[in-house]
Structure formats: C-alpha cells, structure tokens
Amino acid sequence: MKKIGLLLLVCFVQTTFAQNSEAIELQKTIENSFREIWSELDENQVEKFYTPEFILFEDGEVYNLDSVKNVIRSQKEQFNSEENKAHKFERFNRFEFIRSETEGNTGFIYYHNFADFTMDGTTIANIHWLESAVLTRTKQGWKIKFLHSTLVKDKP
Fold first, then answer.
1. In 3D, which of 73, 70, 86 has the Cα closest to residue 41?
2. Could you say which DSSP state residue 34 is in?
3. What's the Cα-to-Cα distance from 54 to each of 18, 35, 47, 119, 151, rounded to whole Å?
4. In this structure, is residue 156 part of a structural domain?
5. Which CATH number is 98's domain given?
6. Alpha helix (H) residue ranges in 34-141
7. Rounded CA gap, 110 and 101, in Å?
8. What is the residue range of 42's domain?
9. In this predicted model, what pLDDT tens digit does every residue of 71-107 receive, in sequence order?
10. Contact call for residues 75 and 90 (beta carbons, < 8 A)
11. What total of structural domains would you count in the chain?
12. What is the pLDDT of residue 156?
C-alpha cells in the first residue's frame, strides 16, 4: 500500500512540475516577445515570437504580422525624427500573470501588462492592459498565434 501511495505522489509531483515548467515557458515567451519586439522596436523579431497566421485584437483594431511591423517602423521613425533624436526613449514592461494552461501543443495565458515609457529617464506615460494569448508549440518553441489586448482605464 505504501508503494502505491509513493507512486501516486511521484506521478503528482511530475505532473505538477511539467505544468509549472510549461507555465514558465509561456510566461517567458510573453515577456521576451514584448521586450524584443515592443521595447527594442525590432520588427526582425516578429517571426521569432509570432506564428505566420498571428492576429492581434487591440482597441477595436485587427493587426497581423505586416501591420505589426508597420507600427514598429512608424514608432521608430517617430523616435528618430529631428525633434526626437536627441532624446532617449525607453519602454519597461512588467507582467502580472493570472493563469496559464496547456492542452497538447496549445497554450493559453492570461495576464496584466504594464508598460512604463520614459524620455531621458523621466516617466512620460504608464499604460496598463489586460491581455490573453493563445500560443502554439513549434519546433522553435512556443509562438504566439493570437493576442487580445484591452486597455485598462483608471477608475474615477
């Protein structure tokens, strides 16, 4: 009887570890994608983190790989304009993960996304989104297939 109990405990611990390990992988994919794409404004990283059929819903708009790259290019042009190129703009991301789960090669993650924007070290904006994402496990690791982003407005 003790052997059966021990075997069940080992199976439970292995399952819990696997679930926690996958949750960490999903979280790291989200964190790294926002840093490398949106903080560093690197459109060359889009395919590293997003699947070819990627869709983003944000603020009533629908974006795909091409439109995301266009937004990144536009932001870079704005930051590199004559009036702005003397300044240093930065984005710092912070996440509060609510829940994540996997079913086979599909992952689901729900979280708060906070971004602090600075110019020359001074905060110029703080933005808070509530987001959910669907990820697909590929040979290269987890990639984001769908992202839904809702701006969280301050309550009066």
1. 73
2. I
3. 26, 18, 9, 31, 20
4. no
5. 3.10.450.50
6. 46-49, 65-79
7. 9
8. 2-151
9. 999 999 988 888 888 999 999 999 999 999 999 999 9
10. no
11. 1
12. 66
